[in-house]
């Protein structure tokens, strides 16, 4: 299997205020086409930072990131913008919907600038929200909002779907519905998917589980079989 | 509609409170400029149209008596197109039921037709007919002041004879837009009227048959007015000419133009200051507003929107806000401008009104506001877009707070946690704190600038009418009289003191600079109307010889004490001589020149005589005095100090106050806009922090204190700066306001600063209450759960 995305020796140093934080200390990672990877790690292990860097939301202090044949390291702002626009879909812990737009419009925000988008209604249909197109974020439950965020992420038919703690703000029952949506997208559309979580249970729905600690991928675990999210419980 | 378009519209709607508050700031600046420039353009256009339609003369001259044939010699002067000769005289009028003497200026017009120049705008009735020797048309304001109508009769003391005159019409004239009685500074329609009478009748009454004593000219296009005046003066000299004046120096027009010049100054400076302040505030407020959108900017970038696209999105948002403000500003400015213009039209009694909102003002105002707003937003968008999206979506990194050594020692002991948060917040972002302070200070400054007018004009009035003058009445005589007249007047009922005064028209020149003015001769013990220095509030002694000049005139002529001024008297034997400047005196009004009355009479080679009398009257005998005065044939002018005071406060002050009230209103709008936005933005910047504090157990009152305390401290600090700024702006304004007629003595009462501060505090309090309402309804869970 060819790697869609590879990251090598990634380090990231943050300066917040007067403190210097080494979030990543030489992380390596490959994402293979069509697979679903779960990145597991405790809070502060650097998993979000790694996700942000491979998604082009942030730049590494050192190291290289390649997307297919394209070098992302050292790419300028407009190249990163194009990379995100054309190839990556994001789902965030706190949904980050635009409060002033309806579910359908939130999805349209992305489809309008994508090359080969799904119809927003269709994307919402995939996550089971075909009936709630005209609701504003404030009128949707947390799980529904997160599913709108997933629809928004997949509507552009990205090659990579990156989810940062997608169930972090949800109860387990709602969380499972969201994971089912992600699982479904991965299977049906074949989108390479990476899910960040600190919940070990979720690891069993993945093809591979990357354990992240101290700013590195500590070890990689391969599941012989992916468990459907419906069977998970925490 | 694209999703981004919807976002713009919905965001505008969602933030409508703030959009409106910022719009108000924008609108205040725009309205101020549109109001002022529209008024100015409208008045310029209206005056020009009025003058042209009613053929207002371009040159005016007075003579003692010139035979009609002189008209041909005047017509022969190159450049003269039309000539209108006439008879015009001042006389006292007796109006039933009005105790005080009233002055009238009689002006002759051809029987039953309009004169070729200075035509009448007939408002009611008709013109005097050929045979109607007792028919007069009177000016409309005078008619209204005395409730006179066509058919009514009044008595005029013409050439010593009481004549019953029948009013056949009322009219307005471009020549008497500002109808000023002799020696008056303000129009007083109750005590001064214009009476147009058939030429033959008036000439007969004043023994001027076949002659004229007043002439006005209309010039050919491109004619040299100065040359025409010189030649006209030469022609009229031997007939007792006192020097011709161009239209720009014609009394009424000069006052109208002076008023417009003042308006122009106010119109340029105030709105410019307003626009600059409003642009600055818009810039600041929008910068902060967009900064709070940092998370959404990061999100859009995460989806693949480029920085340019995000910038364009916020540009449209900002343009939307400015548009809202512009619409309010244009509508308000146009309306206020129209109101203001109508007020002036009424003051000047223009029979027509040419008004349209100034397109250039709209263009200037809207583009300045737009540019300021876009710049403010651009800075913030750029800062947010420069961040990697991952970072932008996170709340800003905790700002660096420092423990100041001072806090650790003394202050910290008595400051509670809430107050510490406030103080550290103020100190954390000094730039932002300074900007907020500047915003508030600017609106306080504008309020002071607007409100100080009342103080300054009041001070001017006090000085001019109460400190520099003590007489009750000034009487003007038809001809200079021997100074025994002083004794005669002493014997009139109720007279306590009489002081003679002589005023002659004169040209004063130094090198190439010539000023046409008048020379006032006073007794050295004059106290009813002495030489009064407004700057030192002291009486300056009358010199035995030489001239005392107003400082403004001295400056115009470029002379100081010891220099000599070339004086050409335009009356009597028309002496010409060089006189030394022996003193300077600062006056707020006009540009006077004083000398000793005896020196003046010697100059004229006349025996001691007087032309004006300043009189102090026992208030118990006023009625008897007036009754006698009306019977005296040699009285040609009566000026009452109280009437002048009334018309000063009535006309000028009241009028300027309306204008100032408009500006104060706009300054309040500005102040409210700043205060509200500061608090509102502070709330969105710190919602999370405040909600966290609530979760930790702080009460609503405590977190309101933390949020509003910060705004409060900044405003408290801003108030003194605002007062200082207001003083500075007022000084600039007063300096710009200097005209030959008025100088504004800058005076700001403590109560004016107080009022400005109270208004600013009230605006702050209202906005604080609005924000407090929002603080009380913070959704704790929601705020903690989601990142803005």
N-to-C span of chain B: 25 Å
Q: Tell me, rounded to a whole number, the average pLDDT of chain A.
A: 88
Fraction of residues in β-strands of chain B: 15-25%
Share of helix among residues of chain B? Answer: 40-55%
Topology, number of strands of chain A: 10
Oligomeric state of the chains present here:
heterodimer
Identify low-pLDDT runs of chain B.
none
Overall body shape of chain A:
globular
Radius of gyration of chain B: 34 Å
Spans of at least 5 consecutive residues with low confidence of chain A? none
Biggest sheet of chain B: strands, sense, closure?
6 strands, mixed, barrel
With helices defined by DSSP (H or I, 4 residues minimum), what is the helix count of chain B? Answer: 22
For the largest sheet of chain B, list the strands in their spatial order. 3-4-9-6-8-7
Helix proportion of residues of chain A, in percent?
25-40%
* Largest interface: chains, residues each: A-B, 38 and 32 residues
Largest sheet strand order of chain A: 6-7-8-3-9-10
Shape of chain B: elongated
Structural class, from helix and strand content of chain A? alpha/beta
Instruction: Count all strands of chain B and give the number.
Output: 22
Structural class of chain B: alpha+beta
Alpha plus pi helix count of chain A: 6
Can you lay out the helices and strands and say which pair or pack?
The complex is a heterodimer of chains A (234) and B (788).
Chain A: E1 3-16, E2 19-32, E3 36-40, H1 47-54, E4 62-67, E5 70-71, H2 77-87, E6 88-91, H3 103-111, H4 120-126, H5 142-154, E7 160-164, H6 172-189, E8 192-197, E9 208-213, E10 216-222
Parallel strand pairs in A: 3-8, 3-9, 6-7, 7-8
Antiparallel strand pairs in A: 1-2, 1-4, 4-5, 9-10
Chain B: H1 3-14, H2 16-53, E1 59-67, H3 70-75, E2 80-86, E3 88-94, E4 102-109, E5 121-125, E6 135-139, H4 140-145, E7 153-158, E8 161-172, E9 192-198, H5 199-205, E10 211-219, H6 225-237, E11 245-246, H7 251-291, H8 294-303, H9 307-348, H10 359-386, H11 389-393, H12 405-414, H13 417-428, H14 430-467, E12 473-482, H15 485-490, E13 495-510, E14 513-522, E15 531-533, E16 538-540, E17 547-550, H16 551-557, E18 564-569, E19 576-585, E20 593-596, H17 597-603, E21 609-617, H18 622-631, E22 635-640, H19 641-695, H20 700-737, H21 750-776, H22 780-785
Parallel strand pairs in B: 4-9, 6-8, 14-20, 17-19
Antiparallel strand pairs in B: 1-10, 1-11, 2-10, 3-4, 3-7, 5-8, 6-9, 7-8, 12-21, 12-22, 13-14, 13-18, 13-21, 15-16, 17-20, 18-19
């Amino acid at each position: 299997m060819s790697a869609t995305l590879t990251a090598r020796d990634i380090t990231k140093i943050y300066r917040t205020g007067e403190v210097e934080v080494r979030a990543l200390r030489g992380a390596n990672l490959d994402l293979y086409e069509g697979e679903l990877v779960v990145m597991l790690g405790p809070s502060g292990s650097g998993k979000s930072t790694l996700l942000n860097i491979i998604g082009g939301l942030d730049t590494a202090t050192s190291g290289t990131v390649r997307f297919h044949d394209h070098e992302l390291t050292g790419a300028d702002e407009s190249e990163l913008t194009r990379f995100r626009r054309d190839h990556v879909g994001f789902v965030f812990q706190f949904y980050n919907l635009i409060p002033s737009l309806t579910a359908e419009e939130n999805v349209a925000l992305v489809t309008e600038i994508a090359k080969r988008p799904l119809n927003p209604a269709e994307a919402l249909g995939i996550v089971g929200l075909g009936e709630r197109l005209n609701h504003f974020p404030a009128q949707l439950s947390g799980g529904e909002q997160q599913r709108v965020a997933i629809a928004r992420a997949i509507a552009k038919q990205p090659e990579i779907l990156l989810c940062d703690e997608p169930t972090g703000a949800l109860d387990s029952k709602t969380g499972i519905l969201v994971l089912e949506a992600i699982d479904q997208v991965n299977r049906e559309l074949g989108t390479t998917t990476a899910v960040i979580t600190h919940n070990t249970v979720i690891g069993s729905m993945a093809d591979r589980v990357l354990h992240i600690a101290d700013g590195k991928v500590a070890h990689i675990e391969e599941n012989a079989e992916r468990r459907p999210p419906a069977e998970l419980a925490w | 509609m694209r999703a981004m378009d919807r976002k713009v519209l919905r965001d505008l709607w969602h933030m409508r409170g703030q959009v409106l508050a910022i719009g108000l700031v924008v609108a205040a600046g725009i309205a101020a400029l549109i109001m002022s420039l529209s008024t100015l353009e409208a008045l310029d256009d209206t005056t020009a149209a009025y003058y042209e339609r009613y053929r207002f003369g371009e040159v005016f001259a007075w003579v003692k008596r010139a035979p009609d044939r002189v008209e041909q010699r005047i017509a022969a002067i190159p450049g003269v197109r039309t000539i209108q000769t006439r008879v015009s005289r001042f006389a006292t009028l007796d109006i039933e039921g009005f105790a005080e003497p009233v002055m009238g200026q009689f002006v002759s017009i051809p029987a039953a037709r309009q004169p070729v120049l200075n035509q009448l705008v007939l408002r009611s009735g008709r013109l005097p007919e050929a045979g109607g020797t007792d028919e007069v048309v009177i000016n409309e304001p005078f008619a209204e002041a005395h409730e006179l109508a066509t058919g009514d009769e009044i008595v005029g003391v013409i050439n010593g004879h009481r004549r019953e005159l029948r009013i056949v019409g009322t009219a307005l004239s471009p020549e008497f837009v500002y109808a000023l009685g002799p020696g008056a500074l303000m129009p007083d329609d109750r005590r001064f009227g214009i009476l147009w009478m058939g030429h033959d009748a008036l000439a007969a009454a004043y023994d001027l048959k076949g002659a004229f004593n007043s002439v006005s000219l209309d010039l050919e296009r491109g004619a040299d007015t100065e040359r025409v005046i010189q030649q006209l003066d030469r022609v009229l000299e031997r007939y007792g000419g006192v020097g011709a004046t161009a239209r720009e120096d014609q009394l009424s027009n000069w006052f109208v133009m002076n008023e417009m010049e003042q308006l122009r100054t106010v119109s340029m400076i105030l709105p410019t200051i307003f626009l600059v302040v409003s642009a600055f505030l818009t810039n600041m407020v929008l910068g902060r507003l967009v900064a709070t959108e940092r998370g959404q900017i990061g999100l859009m970038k995460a989806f693949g929107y480029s920085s340019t696209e995000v910038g364009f999105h916020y540009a449209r948002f900002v343009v939307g806000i400015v548009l809202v403000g512009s619409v309010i500003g244009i509508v308000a400015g146009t309306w206020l401008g129209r109101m203001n213009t109508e007020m002036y039209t009424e003051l000047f009694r223009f029979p027509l009104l040419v008004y349209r909102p100034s397109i250039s003002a709209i263009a200037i105002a809207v583009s300045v506001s737009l540019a300021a707003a876009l710049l403010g937003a651009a800075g913030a968008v750029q800062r947010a877009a420069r961040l990697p999206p991952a970072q932008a979506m996170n709340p800003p990194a905790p700002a660096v707070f420092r423990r100041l050594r001072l806090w650790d020692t003394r202050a910290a002991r008595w400051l509670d946690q809430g107050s510490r948060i406030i103080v550290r917040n103020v100190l954390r972002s000094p730039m932002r704190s300074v900007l907020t302070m500047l915003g508030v200070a600017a609106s306080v400054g504008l309020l002071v600038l607007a409100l100080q007018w009342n103080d300054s004009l009041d001070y001017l009035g006090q000085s001019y009418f109460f400190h520099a003058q003590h007489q009750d009445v000034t009487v003007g005589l038809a001809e200079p009289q021997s100074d025994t007249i002083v004794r005669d007047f002493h014997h009139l009922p109720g007279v306590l003191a009489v002081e003679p005064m002589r005023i002659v028209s004169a040209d004063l020149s130094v090198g190439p600079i010539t000023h046409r003015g008048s020379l006032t001769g006073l007794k050295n013990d004059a106290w009813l109307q002495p030489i009064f220095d407004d700057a030192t509030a002291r009486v300056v002694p009358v010199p035995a010889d030489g001239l005392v000049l107003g400082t403004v005139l001295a400056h115009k002529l470029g002379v100081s004490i010891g220099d000599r001024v070339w004086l050409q008297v335009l009356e009597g034997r028309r002496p010409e001589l060089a006189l030394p400047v022996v003193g300077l005196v600062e006056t707020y009004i006009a540009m006077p020149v004083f000398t000793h009355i005896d020196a003046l009479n010697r100059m004229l080679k006349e025996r001691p005589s007087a032309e004006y009398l300043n009189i102090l009257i026992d208030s118990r005998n006023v009625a008897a005095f007036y009754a006698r005065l009306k019977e005296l044939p040699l009285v040609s002018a009566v000026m009452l100090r109280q009437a002048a005071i009334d018309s000063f406060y009535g006309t000028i002050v009241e009028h300027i106050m309306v204008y100032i009230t408009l500006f104060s209103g706009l300054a309040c709008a500005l102040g409210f806009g700043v205060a509200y936005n500061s608090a509102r933005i502070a709330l969105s910047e710190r919602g999370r922090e405040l909600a966290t504090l609530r979760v930790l157990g702080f009460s609503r009152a405590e977190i309101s204190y933390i949020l509003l305390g910060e705004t409060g401290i900044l405003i408290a600090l801003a108030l003194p700066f605002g007062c200082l700024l207001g003083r500075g702006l007022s000084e600039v304004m007063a300096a710009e306001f200097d005209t030959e007629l008025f100088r504004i003595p800058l005076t700001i009462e403590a109560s004016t600063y107080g009022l400005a501060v109270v208004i600013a505090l009230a605006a702050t309090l209202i906005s604080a209450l609005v924000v407090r309402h929002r603080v009380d309804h913070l959704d704790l869970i929601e705020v903690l759960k989601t990142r803005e």
